[in-house]
Here is the input.
Amino acid sequence: MGKQFLEITEKKEVEATISHIATEVAKARAKTSTSVEKVNVNEALGRIASADIFSALNVPPFNRAIMDGYAVVASDTFYADENNPASLIINGSIFAGEFPSHAVDKGSCMGISTGAPLPKGANATVKVENTAEYTEVVEGKKLKKVKVYKPVAPGENIMLAGSDIKRGERIVRRGTTLTPRETGVLAACGLNEVLVRKHLTVAIISTGNELIAPGEDLEPAKIYDVNAQTLSDSVRECGCTPHFLGIVSDDIEEISGKLKQSLGSGADVIIVSGGTSAGVGDLLPKVIEELGEIIVHGVDIKPGKPFIFGTIRGKPFFGLPGNPTSALVTFNLFGAPLRRTISGISARNHEEGERRKEKRIKAKAAQRIFSERGRNEYVLVNLVATKKPEEASFLAYPILTGSGAITTLSKADGYIFMEKGKEIIEEGEEVDVELFID
Amino acid sequence: MGKQFLEITEKKEVEATISHIATEVAKARAKTSTSVEKVNVNEALGRIASADIFSALNVPPFNRAIMDGYAVVASDTFYADENNPASLIINGSIFAGEFPSHAVDKGSCMGISTGAPLPKGANATVKVENTAEYTEVVEGKKLKKVKVYKPVAPGENIMLAGSDIKRGERIVRRGTTLTPRETGVLAACGLNEVLVRKHLTVAIISTGNELIAPGEDLEPAKIYDVNAQTLSDSVRECGCTPHFLGIVSDDIEEISGKLKQSLGSGADVIIVSGGTSAGVGDLLPKVIEELGEIIVHGVDIKPGKPFIFGTIRGKPFFGLPGNPTSALVTFNLFGAPLRRTISGISARNHEEGERRKEKRIKAKAAQRIFSERGRNEYVLVNLVATKKPEEASFLAYPILTGSGAITTLSKADGYIFMEKGKEIIEEGEEVDVELFID
Here is the structure.
């Protein structure tokens, strides 16, 4: 019973064909506004930015202190040392979140907390550790003053407005998959909504007279449908939305009806499992030829030989073998890679993501890295891939914007641990980078 | 202003402390039924099985053909060859999903499709390729017959009831994270619901007079809150549910009130960012000491020195620095590992998961592996970790249950590609294993 009429295609050719179709579909999809949606940043984790995102403001929005201490006119502290401290009048103090009501004049200062805006006139912060407060009685009045034991240069211990992110600066590149670092940068810029690509919707249909849905009673000669579950979950793992349309029997009208339904429901991709092998009348190929085009029928792999790929009204169509293992293997080989193309994930982003799925990878220090003496230090680094996917195929650049900067986050791919006692990493030294993933 | 009263603890000691508390919390949690919920298998991807799961039925539920051909009494075909085929009367045929209405007697057979139940009397399937149908006229009546050119042994090309999964067999181990392979096995056993551990709920609170929520208007001296976003998303990446309770100002009553609210909301873990460093009155440590216990205040790492860990009414409490980078680093170091312990992910499962986040890994073949001549073959393998996390630290065992078996799926971690022409992999040979992840 039945006959074989597969024309076996080579795997590489199948991959090239699918990639070509996916690119066409992606282009068509990019032109429609329906492929983009606005979501709350709270729901944006893992989504793909559909356009470049720019900051509408400076971060920080004002010059701010990055140490607890005193906002001063730097020149007042020049030449100060332990034996010859500078003495300044304390003219009030300012906490984070407060706006300074007055300026700092030469000879005076204001107490300031980390994060507070620097008052006018001040151009540096003296760390509290390098000072001592005291009271002086001048003309019968108690005057609060502070001794400064170390000089500061203009700009020291402060962060200038816009030094982290400048108004108008691009903060997220189109095609980037949003991680907590990117959503953090969006938050820093005050954004609570973001334009992302819509999830691809993948219609899934199981065919086979013998199939029953799990949860229902098992009748004689029937078995439970496995592919609806494994394919739906595999689609979810790809970051797409599965839409299971149900089990259909081996009937040309039924299969054709379901396929039309999947097109009507707006599916971006259609997957049917079962009904692909020779025998039982080859229903599926017949239906596809009626509604669209079969491009591949049969591939030189085992398991998975009777694999079908084609298009129905411009939508990629996958006919996977009914056998659960074969279905999963062929989906992983030919279906999963489709997502990147159609979703518009930037290739760099994706490829590096692929190579970064480990929690820890080896890299080479791109330059000398110093650590503070006597501290276990986590040096945030940015990884740049070198050409070959070999060991230590990344260069690790330390991020020098400082831990106060928000952009440190989005630039960082992970961190290098420098244990107490290790104070220098030489350029080219191999390092372990702990990546920012669970 | 302010003073330092951190007592610096070593990082390793902090990790040990957190691990100890997490274990206690996990034990307490395991005793309450509220830590478990029943979900539809469709929503179970990535969830953790809270108990061993057993099959209530045999898979397959009946003896089934695994080839298109003829259901025969094997002994009828013994000694058959090209020159001397066995001749059998075709007594009807049976398709997948149909229940055979009659038995196969010696000298006769039934046409059978892949997946159809084997009729009584038959004990093997002859592949259609090894046969030829013909018509014989006997006493004026046309009789459909088939010539069989190759003998089959009893059991050949059939799958016995329960040979894949036996009724009562454990199909998923408690603590397993459910992938498409496990959900597929649940489906095969007819299960559409599964008991899983509830997601951990993590309450998140931001403190700081200077903070404003993204989306609101920026006032003078204020900045947008970044930590609510990065910590919520990092919690999501850990597979837990964040519950952001809002921004509170640096006020002892407000902070205390929010913490009580987080306890009331049933949070499993509480994270507060900001308010941990010396200065600004050290509000947070004061509040924690009132409501619970501070175990760690200060750790010998940079960034992240002012990190706090403690418990409030038995719940783990994390006080993270307000600085976004420091908050994220300390969460990754100390917060993220908590999930595994409290959620009850089995250690083996987790550890191997960690080491398998790449798409492809090196392994050594645990035994000789053969491929079919002239085919590109994907050999499904199960990985067993050897002791050291070095290269090729996994042994790859080929799965021999055949592609028809459902359990092949849940046993498989990935596949080895044997290109056409490569017919043998020797025991101990290094192989690339493509893992079952996108």
About this structure: The first helix of chain A runs from residue 11 to 31. Chain A has nine helices and 28 strands.
